[in-house]
Amino acid sequence: MNISLIKGRTIFLVDAIGAFVSAISLLVPYLFKEVFGMPQSILTIFITIAIAYSLYSITVYLSNTPKWKSYLLIIALLNIGYCLFTMYYVFNNMNTITLYGYLYFVGEILIILTLSGFELRLSRAKTG
After folding, report:
1. I need a labelling partner for 123 at 20 to 30 A (CA). Which of 21, 39, 70, 98 fits?
2. What is the number of domains present in the chain?
3. Does residue 85 lie within any of the structural domains?
4. CA 67/CA 108 separation, integer angstroms
5. Would you list the DSSP string of 30-86?
6. Between 99-124 and 10-25, two packed helices, what is the crossing angle to 10 degrees?
7. pTM for the whole thing?
């Protein structure tokens, strides 16, 4: 799927689904802590944030607000903040995170930053 084909507030549906998938996929490192090495207490925070972001995005999508670009800027910045938060905890737990943990979290960060970059551009576009 080419993300640049997504127009208007439909990006919130993509963001909501992505955050929900992230919350579900975070259950894997949560359930297999020894394979990934991130403490479950931190993963619980990550899961909670992903669920909150999903609820935010689906609410904006369903509200059909004309000011959706302002809300898009907010979720883009929140997503970037989540990536910084994740990076902090990855570095803070370097002694316990395994190669699988690094691969998982770096992959998640790259995906989220790609989406956030697109969201930032779309929030500033003249049309959309």
Report:
1. 21
2. 1
3. yes
4. 29
5. HHTHHHH---HHHHHHHHHHHHHHHHHHHHHHHHT-TTHHHHHHHHHHHHHHHHHHH
6. 170
7. 0.91
